[in-house]
């Protein structure tokens, strides 16, 4: 990973499929001081804890053969909806000119899902994308990881 220059007032959005931190650098590139602007969280238990019914089955006409229908992946659907929520919030902040530069930090799958949903007004402000899971780290650990290079 290359070193990220955390300029004063740059925003850093750290997310996974269940939590998102919107951070703003109140410090400078040498001494970053990320402060929480907003935190989003959603409960997203594994699919087997969300689905209540067995996967459906269907028959092919008069035949006795029956085929199983693939179980709905509720966990994945919740992650996609959460990406929608993050994208909408980033658009709202960008439209209000709350930030001019943005660094996205998320696991590769979440980053990919988020990228598909971002408005061009947000996309044009992204200065770096980091495919890592950092939501379980403290703010000071996130600062260290991002500036370590």
Estimated radius of gyration: 20 Å
Q: Mind telling me the CATH class?
A: Alpha Beta
The number of distinct helices, counting runs of at least 4 residues, comes to 5
| Overall SS class | alpha/beta
Main β sheet profile: 5 strands, mixed
Q: How many domains, in number, for the residues? A: 1
Termini separation (Å)?
Answer: 6 Å
Tell me what the CATH architecture is: 2-Layer Sandwich
How much of the sequence lies in strands comes to 15-25%
Order of helices and strands: EEEHEEHEHHEH
CATH fold-type name = Nucleotidyltransferase, domain 5
What does this structure look like?
The chain is an alpha/beta fold. The chain has one domain: eRF1 domain 2 (Nucleotidyltransferase, domain 5, 2-Layer Sandwich), CATH 3.30.420. It has 5 helices and 7 strands; from the N terminus they run βββαββαβααβα. It has helices spanning 47-50, 74-95, 108-117, 120-123, 139-148, and strands at residues 11-15, 19-25, 34-41, 57-59, 66-68, 102-105, 126-130. The strands form 2 sheets. It has a 5-stranded mixed sheet, sandwiched between helices. A two-stranded antiparallel sheet has the order 4-5. Strand 2 and strand 3 (34-41) form a beta hairpin. Helix 2 packs across helix 3 (108-117). The relative contact order is 0.22.
